[in-house]
Design goal:
Two copies of one chain form a homodimer.
Chain A: H1 2-21, H2 27-33, E1 35-36, H3 39-45, H4 55-76, E2 82-89, E3 96-103, H5 113-118, E4 122-123, H6 139-151, E5 155-160, E6 167-175, E7 180-188, E8 195-203, H7 213-223, E9 228-233, E10 237-241, H8 264-273, H9 279-286, H10 292-301, H11 315-327, H12 343-353, E11 358-363, E12 367-369, E13 372-382, E14 388-391, E15 397-400, H13 408-411, E16 419-424, E17 427-429, H14 437-443, E18 464-472, H15 489-541, H16 545-563
Parallel strand pairs in A: 2-9, 16-18
Antiparallel strand pairs in A: 2-3, 3-8, 5-6, 5-8, 6-7, 9-10, 11-13, 12-13, 13-18, 14-15, 16-17
Helix pairs in contact in A: 4-6, 9-10, 14-15, 15-16
Chain lengths: ~575, ~575
């Protein structure tokens, strides 16, 4: 008995020890858990940051990343883009689809394929300032990673760089622990002389309508009239967007950073990385708009020799140099690096899609934020019952014949918020509208002064589609998924100016419409009461019926002339 | 002449060649530009993603990241946190401040300091499921990187892990090209037995009021009553938040992922990385809530042997295993890993800060999104003129004496949107309110049914502060800056349920208030007209003044009794 008791006591003690003994963490125990996180692991866990929140959005994001890359590559190589986009259900696998994007671009050299598709943060567009759709080196490898995560399948690529070279077929997986590709490669027959084809199996949901792949491709075709897209989607449907213009948009130039947009830390890094021998040549070659004279001015003000060696500039000297740069007047960055869509293309796109009463467009001159050139353009279609009108480029309003039908589906109803269509570097943006600088700019305008209703802090109300495009050598997005533009004050200001320019012409149109409507109402009163006045006159003056009718007609004529309708 | 002409012609040709000769890119020329992008380079260029958009926000973000780390470390080590937060202007340097956060935590071992402060994506919290403030391994090194970028100065750290060990002082810079730390280290005297002090010079703007460091610290003190914070800010001001409770919040447990939240790709990775010898033990040890019986069920359904070797599971078998897991009923994840702030603390915080008419709080039971347990709690203060009321825990409304003053500054005016205070794992969220799941949940509620005004798609209107807290082992933020919570349907649903629970009680209060107000109005009419009725009666019946007044009093009594005021 005594023995058994002891054993019970022992067990209890062990239990207590276990509970009490569970020590809290110390610096040493915490240190053991510290480790590196690979960027792929980070984005796998945070895949919503890349636009892979849910199966529906994932499909759109995947297609978008592949199409962006195809268009960028075609344009850089001077090829008119010819795309095939296909969404194919995987038999027997509900909620799984294969997305395919095939282009006639320059192809990708063999050695680069694994990294481009199987490594996050790898690419050619990040380290330069040039207007392009892609800019981060994340997009397409993230789409492949999402496909791999949800279906276990690798991303499949066929690419060929010329008719005299063989096509290669790759299967690429991403090792998320190391952020490195694992791949197979084989030569294959491919009918295209050059181009790239990407296939990704993914958990997805196929839908039509707002924020769908179809909607995205349609808007892409509108903003890129030089592109031809064949879109195949489930149940053997096909939509073909033919090219409308036979020329590529003007090629945009890569520029150097503007000195005023460079932060101190970056300046220090550039100085220590520089291969230039003198401060003067460093300033002239690393930045745009710095002549020898400007370089000298900057150095003088910083009390540094223009012949000093860049690598030997001390921290305090760099600080002085930075202040001096900020205080020196330097020409604005070159703006031939920006290619707008253009008023004609924007208006043509609107007119093709929407039958409205009134169209107008405006393009702002280029401007600068954080040293980066950018440009905003806007266009709108406004539809109400009544005569079709158009504003000419000189601002004159011309009446045209009545529109065949009011496209309420696209324009929205008169009592709903306007439809806002956003583009960044010719790419339509589908999600996160409320977080976007474009929305903030549009909401910040006083639409009542143009005769529209506008609830406080919201988009205006009315049957209207408003298109806004921002083009820049570097578009600041609010997240890696590139769905909304960050609210830099300079950008919001330009958005407002572009939209206000359209708004003022719209205001004139709406006021005129209101004036006409008011006159119509007054006129209908006159029409209503004139016969009664006639009868009154007949009774008082004893007129016969014919004279009465003649008098009524005379009165009508007088009144109409006086109202000038 | 002929010679001169030729030279001109040559020059022209060269010019033409130069223009025409500028060849478009090829696959080969593009390949040369392809290169790796370090995660630090990426976030330097995209620093707005980390919350360093502008000098004002940068100061708040920097303090927040340091305070989050200090509180996490103290709590893990079982130490009641004692913090000093200081914002110090740098003499002669406008727009530059030093931010200092010092704690009494366990300290950081020497070898880890450079990586923790000088490398993005490094930490102990990413690879685990445990409720904590930090979770990404980005925050504090990003703050240091921003400081370095804008001032050129290194981040300075003093840390000591115990009274018998020396304190170390580090200066850490981040090499952004390599995402690696460069540092100096020296032993120093420090009066604290253990703790960590972080100093960062940065371009910043110091402000008070909404979304300031002060506001953030105040809200932190409210949600963390076990914390003591001394806050020093420019012009020799100090605010001291003493601790209100002497106990740490219950320690939360680290949990294994729940099988239902694991994607196929992750399952494949876990299988190939596993050190377990059988599929059964793999399932039991890598996941929560999988017993031997459940493991067998999963294996049977997938037609796999429970004794199969995890590393030898083929892709198709993994797919079957994944489906089988999804189709097997498995107990919900454990919820002792979640520590709410608690209704008492939330109400006490509201009552301390705001004198309102009515307070109520609600805590939801834990729920699950993507396999991660989470919990929502809400509290609100509603203030109107009139009697102070309170709802007891049983839901009964008790009238109290009139409030001393209506705190309109905090509650907002009656015709403005309510004030929403958001917390995630006890951290107050200051920015991006409109993008947050909390806002979406609150806006999605029909506030009119509680007697409040609500514009379409907007927060309700009224003098009210609403606090919502989400606690989870992994909070899904919409960006690396952790300002807003991603809109998972399960999370929005729980937010709605918690707020609706408060809303219903508020509705009863408002309805009662309205009833009283209506009665007051009716009563005032009676008071207004009774004397006139008296005079009328006097005239008709020929009463003397005294009888008239008596009759009026009788009438008043009857009417008041019948209206039950």
């Amino acid at each position: 008995m005594g023995h058994a008791k002891k054993r019970v006591a022992e067990t209890q003690m062990t239990k207590t020890q276990k509970t009490k003994g569970k020590r809290r963490a110390t610096a040493e125990s915490m240190a053991k858990k510290q480790r590196e996180i690979s960027v792929s692991e980070f984005f796998t866990k945070n895949r919503h940051l890349l636009g892979f929140d849910n199966p529906r959005k994932a499909l759109l994001t995947g297609v978008k990343e592949a199409v962006d890359n195809s268009l960028d590559a075609c344009e850089e190589a001077g090829i008119l883009p010819d795309l095939i986009v296909e969404i194919r259900p995987i038999p027997g696998q509900e909620q799984r689809f294969t997305m395919i994007v095939e282009d006639n671009g320059p192809g990708i050299v063999k050695a680069q394929i694994p990294n481009i598709f199987g490594k996050l943060l790898y690419g050619s567009k990040f380290h330069r300032l040039k207007q392009s759709r892609g800019q981060q080196g994340i997009g397409i490898s993230a789409a492949g990673m999402y496909g791999q995560l949800t279906t276990g399948s690798p991303i499949r690529i066929i690419s060929r760089t010329g008719s005299r070279r063989p096509a290669h077929r790759f299967e690429v997986r991403i090792n998320t622990t190391k952020n490195k590709p694992e791949f197979t490669d084989e030569e294959v027959d491919w009918e295209k002389p050059h181009g790239t084809r990407v296939e990704i199996d993914m958990e997805a949901e196929f839908r039509k309508g707002q924020r769908s792949v179809g909607e995205y491709l349609k808007q892409t075709a509108v903003a890129n009239p030089h592109v031809r897209i064949l879109y195949r989607f489930p149940d053997n449907h096909e939509i073909f967007y033919d090219r409308v213009v036979q020329e590529l948009p003007p090629e945009t130039k890569e520029i150097k950073p503007h000195p005023h947009g460079v932060e101190l830390g970056l300046l220090i890094k550039l100085l220590s990385d520089s291969k230039e021998r003198t401060l003067s040549s460093f300033l002239q070659h690393e930045f745009s708009r710095v002549s020898a004279a400007v370089a000298k001015k900057i150095c003088d003000q910083a009390k540094l020799s223009p012949r000093a060696h860049p690598k030997r500039i001390a921290r305090e000297e760099a600080d002085a140099l930075h202040s001096s740069i900020q205080n020196t007047k330097i020409m604005s960055p070159p703006t031939n690096c920006i290619a707008p869509i253009g008023q004609d293309v924007l208006l043509a796109g609107l007119k093709k899609e929407i039958k409205a009463d009134f169209y107008v467009a405006a393009t702002r001159p280029p401007s600068v934020y954080r040293g980066n050139p950018f440009l905003v353009e806007a266009a709108l279609a406004y539809g109400r019952e009544g005569d079709t009108m158009e504003v000419t480029e000189t601002g004159k309003i011309v009446a045209r014949k009545r529109a065949s039908s009011l496209d309420t589906e696209l324009l929205g109803n008169a009592d709903e918020a306007i439809r806002l269509v956003r583009f960044a570097n010719r790419v339509p943006l589908q999600y996160q509208q409320s977080a976007c600088a474009i929305s903030k700019g549009v909401i910040g305008i006083n639409w009542r002064s143009y005769g529209m209703q506008q609830p406080r802090g919201a988009l205006p109300i009315g049957p209207m589609v408003l298109v806004v495009h921002i083009a820049s050598v570097w578009v600041p997005f609010t997240s890696e998924s590139k769905e909304a533009i960050a609210s830099y004050p300079e950008i919001i200001k330009e958005i407002k100016l572009a939209v206000q320019e359209c708004g003022r012409k719209l205001g004139a149109h709406i006021r005129k419409g209101k004036r006409i409507a008011t006159e119509h109402r007054k006129r209908s009163y006159i029409e209503l009461y004139l016969p009664h006045i006639g009868i009154g006159l007949q009774e008082i003056l004893g007129l016969d019926d014919k004279t009465r009718d003649e008098d009524v007609e005379i009165l009508r004529g007088i009144l109409e002339r006086s109202r000038k309708i």
